[in-house]
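Person: Please comment on this record:
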Amino acid sequence: MQRAWFATALTVLAVLATACGLFTAPRGGSPARPPPAAPTTSPVPRTSPTPEPPPEPPPGPPVLAVKIDNVAKARPPVGIGAAELVVVEPVEGGYSRLLTIFGGDDLPPLIGPVRSARETDAELLPQFGHPTLAYSGAAPELLPLIAAAPVTDASDAHQPAAYSRDRSRSVPHNLFLHPAALPQGAAWPAQSRPVFGPTPADGTPTDHRRVDYPSATVEVSWSPQQRAWLVSMDGEPYVASDSGRLAPSTVAIQQVAVRESAIRDAAGNPSPIAQTVGSGRVVVLRDGRAFEGTWNRPAPEAATTWTAPDGSALTAAPGQVWTVLTP
């Protein structure tokens, strides 16, 4: 009787345990585990790291801009073979004048002959940051424009100790600059320095180009031996007394709008202004070939760019670069 009672008790306990869920088992016979607790927070989505922008190219060396006389009586020039960039500008009387851009501390001891600035310079110079500008005066009407331009005025009136006269030449074609005596300009902005690169695609084989002004000519002839363009002025080789024949690696013939200013020279000729902000046609000469394209400069502080018809950049060959502004 006791055995029957004990068996009945075990049966009752098993029923109670099953009802409470203590010994439930799945069909496979293994004890069931309680379901995992639901997460209390949402998972953090993965994000890709933001790429770092490429570093901007560092600025270049300090900039010195020097205005150079370019009539026959002013030749030969001195020091301009060391310039990184030479700009040929139209001036009154149908002649041309040069704006030379030097970068770095390795300047020639003497540069010249130095002549007066023009309104074209006031528009050209802002793209070079805040250069030191060396010139030999300007028309009274132009001086406020130079004062307002982003330049350090280093004319002979402001820095007389930096200039001297060569008595073997005639006035006013005999003023020369000693650049070491001038205050240093600001760094050359990287975006406005000449862009060097491999020879662009296509192009037309060319060994000679000539630009005519009313009273002057500029010619360049390709020299395969020197890999450079030999410059002639008014039909004569253009030779610097300290460095020899001027031979830039790249010449850009840049067509610009030219208008008359209210300023006139002593003979009554109006001073032309070459407009270098805007866009127009350009022919880039390098490596014995001519590349047609477009020049563009949207604002005074912006750099001038050259672009091929397909939108690719027209780069310069390493070496001195000339830009010839032509109407």
